Amino acid sequence: MTGPASAARWHLATCHGCGLLSRAGHEHAARCPRCGSPLHTRKPDSIARTWAFIVAAAILYIPANLLPIMETSSLFGAQDDTIMSGVVYLWISGSWHLALVVFIASILVPMAKLFALIVLVLSVQLRARWQPVQRTRLYRLVELVGRWSMLDVYVVTLLVALVQLEALATIRPGTGALAFGAVVVLTMFAAMSFDPRLIWDSMEKDDA
């Protein structure tokens, strides 16, 4: 027993530009009658593009955690700090709550986002029918956390902007910050490329 047919079954699509529900037709050249934006019943090449962003983010996740995210030089010497070394420093200095926040936001959340996106894409490719509502909610959660994964990048940016004692100390973002920012942006692009409507396609009968 299946639920109501999807809009794609009736060749209907919501315009990404103005939100108007229109008939998309069979051609990719179909356009919204209100704003002229191209209409698609499903995002073109959604799975391939999502996989590309996921793989790129997974590769950059390694240097993002191994390379220094902040480089500090002063009269007392130079020091490079990675995300994990910053977490350890906060922990041993007594700021365990800040260490926990940085660890969750900068290490666990990006990893969880990658894992969640992989689960969503694989479930669509395998035409899985389990828990479509929960998978849709998982996708919305991945979209929601988005920019909040850039906590370390925000902190480094604020430190660079606020430290005015350049004669005594200089703080510069390290190469790890660039890799980490790229991971966050790539996972955001992966979430944007994934079409959650594909989750519900497998719930319909294959014989139309």
What does this structure look like?
This protein is mainly alpha-helical. The protein contains 7 helices and 5 strands. It has helices spanning 46-66, 83-92, 96-125, 132-145, 151-162, 175-193, 198-201; strands spanning 12-14, 21-23, 70-74, 77-81, 169-173. A 3-stranded antiparallel β-sheet has the order 4-3-5. Strands 1-2 form a two-stranded antiparallel ribbon. Helix 1 (46-66) packs antiparallel against helix 3, helix 1 runs antiparallel to helix 6 (175-193) and helix 3 (96-125) crosses helix 4. The protein is elongated and about 70 Å long.
Descriptive key words:
208 residues; mainly alpha; 3-stranded antiparallel sheet; two-stranded antiparallel ribbon; 7 helices; 53% helix
Mean pLDDT: 79
Major sheet size, sense and barrel closure: 3 strands, antiparallel
Strand/helix succession: EEHEEHHHHEHH
Radius of gyration: 22 Å
Report the span from N to C terminus. Answer: 13 Å
Number of helices, counting only DSSP H or I runs of 4 residues or more: 7
Strand order of the largest sheet: 4-3-5
How much β-strand is present in the residues? 5-15%
Residue stretches low in confidence (pLDDT < 50, at least 5 long) are none
Number of strands: 5
Described by the principal axes of the CA atoms, the overall outline is: elongated
Helix amount, in percent?
Answer: 40-55%
Structural class: mainly alpha
Brief rundown of the structure:
The chain is built from seven helices and five strands. The protein has helices spanning 46-66, 83-92, 96-125, 132-145, 151-162, 175-193, 198-201; strands at residues 12-14, 21-23, 70-74, 77-81, 169-173.
